[in-house]
Amino acid sequence: MAPLKTLVSTLVLSLMVLDTAASPYGPSREKPATSIASAISPNAEIPAESEAPAAETPGAEIVSQWKSFFKNNCAFGVYVEAARCVDDPTKPAPVSGVKYIAPGGEFENPFKHKDDACSHTIRSSTQQDQTANVYQVEYSVRDGNIWYDLSDIDGHPLLQYKRSLEVKQVGCERIFCDAKQGLAGSGPDCEWPYFQTCKSGDIEFYLC
Length: 208
Fold this sequence. Notes:
Layout: E1 68-72, E2 78-84, E3 99-101, E4 106-108, E5 119-125, E6 135-142, E7 145-151, E8 163-167, E9 175-177, E10 196-199, E11 203-207
Parallel strand pairs: 1-11
Antiparallel strand pairs: 1-4, 2-3, 2-5, 5-6, 6-7, 7-10, 8-9, 8-11
Signal peptide: 1-22
Pfam families: Bys1
InterPro entries: CetA-like
């Protein structure tokens, strides 16, 4: 297993460190400990948009054919920001800076997948302020497999709209949330702790 990696001291790692005996993953489907439900805490400092992303973590193979996208099919714009964990907790986490995605537009995560059990997240909101009330796409790759989920732990500004997350690989199941699904009593849970895992490939999130 790859060594434990952290994003920054503000990461809420405890939210995803589950007791395996009671975990939905089970002994054979244990989620990498570095996959986290809240990749950047609500109080994390967000760099200016002009700040360039930090260099990719050295030492792990970059699998360049694996990409991740956020596609906005809504009639309104949204704000997104991508981040990934780092080997050295004393260094700042690589982040993309907040980007505006126009209606019908898309955002490509600048951080490529690495087969290193390192967490990736794309935060999204209808507001430019990404320090609170953000919805998150989360995924992590290990041994050629990807674990992926949607998380409303840090907020749910997109609850009124359909959301879906899929990996472009044979046998990978799509995670789909209908509009307003996520409210108490609104139907089966489609967000964390619900998750899927399969062979890794391009991962795409669709809003609306």
